[in-house]
Amino acid sequence: MNPLEEFKRRHNRRAFLSGSTLGLGSIAAGTLLGGGNLLGAAEANGLPAGDASAFATIAPKAKRVIYLFQSGGPSQMDLFDYKPQLAKRFGEEVPLSVYPAERKTTMTSGQTSFPVAPSTFKFQQHGQSGLWLSETLPHLAKVVDEICVIKSMHTEAINHDPAATLFQTGSVIAGRPSMGAWVNYGLGTENANLPAFVAMTSNGSAKAGQPLYDRLWGAGFLPGRFQGVKFRGQGDPILDLYNPAGMTRTQRRRMLDSVEKLNQDRADQFNDPTIATRIAQYELAYRMQMSVPELIDVNDEPQSVLDLYGPQATQVGKYAYNCLLARRLAERGVRFIQLYHRGWDAHNNAPKQVPAQCRDTDQPTAALLSDLKQRGMLDETLVIWGGEFGRTVYCQGKLTDKVYGRDHHPNCFTYWMAGGGIRGGMTYGETDEYSVNVVEKPVHVHDLQATILAQLGIDHEQLTYRYQGRYFRLTDVHGNVIGDIVRS
After folding, report:
1. Residue-by-residue DSSP string for 335-366
2. Residue 128 CB: number of other CB atoms within 10 A?
3. Domain for residue 278, yes or no?
4. What is the pTM of this model?
5. From start to end of 71-139, where are the E strands?
6. What is the DSSP letter of 479?
């Protein structure tokens, strides 16, 4: 969509009639658009409809995405990337030829020693696929044949905020649309009573973690109606969800109709797309007053399902609750569901911090896969797990036989994907003997994003938006679909 052309198109006969005597043209246009028809109002202001045919140019294998973002950088060496030979190199210096000084952060670049810190956790092969997993992931081990482990992820960013921003928006520079907003823009919604894009956050029990900014699920320069709706982790998930005492639903409807008329009059006069966005937000909020209370009440789930997700499944704001809510959102047609779990930043005591994070996340994550599968939804739901980067093989701080810390490491780290047309029970890519560099089948952030869009039926090169004189896309100017991990 070219904003200049849209501006010219809107400022023609319709704009003239809108400003004419008594605004009769606007009245006629409003009638033709169906009065309170939300989609018609949006299209009248030059916004794309966001229907499933707008950018879906290839056959989709998934209908929706659940992205389990592990904020802070999970340690690939302590979870997935098994390096048994490093036990013999405990305390040896990591060669500069393997890990040059310029790739170290300021937090450890001043160290005089960079000793090898092998994982203290035991690894074992699981499932028919024989994938290696750490002992900290006993529940994921039971469903390991459903996942594709990508060991060869890499990124340019070495600090948390730009690294997370790159994964969520395709750029280390803030201000771009989030992935969920791009998907919403391209495919729209399946359920008019719920947002197409929902974001939820939770905190690790051992550590609060890095801040998460609203722009990670924002619309950037896309029209505001495509941004994610944040469900809060305490109290009402959405503020002002319920009508105040004394106001009936009929009164609320009458008030919104009056406000919409005033807003539409202003939109017709100024052709401001933000007004159409506000109209859309009011309408969605009204419909959510009916749909969200039932959605968030997980007490109607069978006890067997609650037990599957673990003891925190009914505690609002916990990772387990968010995973269960993600399944309920997926059932109701929400297109893009983003979970952020903080606390993976294990700088000081990885042997303590990593198991604590896994106790929070392992059972609910595995439960989500099992729950989706038993409901026949996993094949059409793409589940993604991973953080903004990995951790170093060398120890940050003092190394002992029981304690080691790990700094940020962008050169190689692990993601996994499941469902949605992804081949399960396989490993893709490989790292060197130190888990420092990718040596086989590298996967860049934009490659992952291109693959996610492809599974939804979108060619990442075609999903574009013209802004400030150029066409932008989620994958910037590169990115390739990881064809080897996709089921034919």
Report:
1. SEEEEEEE----SS-HHHHHHHHHHHHHHHHH
2. 8
3. no
4. 0.86
5. 123-126, 131-134
6. -
Please tell me the predicted confidence (pLDDT) of residue 5.
Answer: 56
Helix axis angle, 160-169 to 445-455, nearest 10°: 30
3-state secondary structure 184-201: HHHHCCCCCCCCCEEEEE
Enumerate long-range contacts of 96-102, CB under 8 Å, 24 or more apart: 98/432, 98/434, 98/436, 98/437, 99/392, 99/393, 99/394, 99/434, 99/436
Q: Give the pLDDT confidence of 248-268 residue by residue, as tens digits.
A: 778 777 877 788 888 888 878
* Domain that residue 192 falls in: 51-246+300-485
Q: Token match 């948390």: residue? A: 160
264 close to 279: Cβ distance less than 8 angstroms: yes
411 or 256, which is more confident: 411
What's residue 478's pLDDT?
93
Q: How many domains are contained in the chain?
A: 1
Q: E strands along 97-146, which residues?
A: 123-126, 131-134
DSSP 304-315: HHHHHH-TTTTS
Query: CA gyration radius for the chain?
Result: 24
User: The CATH number of the domain where 464 resides is what?
Assistant: 3.40.720
Give strand pairing partners of 341: 70, 202
Q: How confident is the prediction for the chain on average, in pLDDT? A: 87
| 418 within domain boundaries | yes
State the Cα–Cα distance between residues 198 and 207, nearest whole angstrom: 24
Q: Is residue 212 part of a domain?
A: yes
Identify whether 139 is part of a domain. yes
